[in-house]
Amino acid sequence: xxxxxxxxxxxxxxxxxxxxxxxxxxxxxxxxxxxxxxxxxxxxxxxxxxxxxxxxxxxxxxxxxxxxxxxxxxxxxxxxxxxxxxxxxxxxxxxxxxxxxxxxxxxxxxxxxxxxxxxxxxxxxxxxxxxxxxxxxxxxxxxxxxxxxx
Length: 150
Ligand SMILES: Cc1cc2nc3c(=O)[nH]c(=O)nc-3n(C[C@H](O)[C@H](O)[C@H](O)COP(=O)(O)O)c2cc1C
Fold this sequence. Notes:
- The two termini are about 15 Å apart.
- By secondary structure, the protein is an alpha/beta fold.
- The protein is built from 5 helices and 6 strands; from the N terminus they run βαβαββαβαβα.
- It has helices at about 15-30, 45-50, 75, 100-110, 125-150, and strands spanning about 5-10, 35-40, 55-60, 70, 85-95, 115-125.
- Strands 1, 2, 3, 4, 5 and 6 form a 6-stranded mixed beta sheet that branches.
- The chain has a single domain, classed as Rossmann fold.
- The chain is about 40% helix and about 25% strand.
- The structure holds flavin mononucleotide.
- Flavin mononucleotide binds near residues 16 and 61.
């Protein structure tokens, strides 16, 4: 059981995959005892965000399929409310080639004050397994941080 009890997922989504993944991540974290809500970057749940110890930020991969990938509509993500002092994790959904999208998302979230502890790229054709893998890694990373600081 983690010391983190509240989290939020904030996502940017064009056609719904990243939103769907965000809802699934929130349900999965909640199932493991971390009360989590998911909301779009254009209407973040500010009350939940202020309570959250962990902020998960998701976006889709925008690029030319072979190069130039970045988080979709990244200007919205760059306006994320400041999250100083909170843990963070990032994810993206993609079709074929994610490039350096996760690193770029990590940089954006770090610039908003988040302490990014992990990231994962979820293939849009495998949302369910991707979400399971990401949340599993996230939970064990939270666990090992707590053991290390105990
Ligand atoms: C304009 C545009 C550019 C895209 N570029 C890439 C790309 O370079 N690589 C890739 O793997 N997927 C690319 N995709 C696919 C999306 O990243 C993928 O479908 C994602 O799951 C969409 O998330 P959403 O449904 O939340 O918008 C692109 C999609 C769009 C609309």
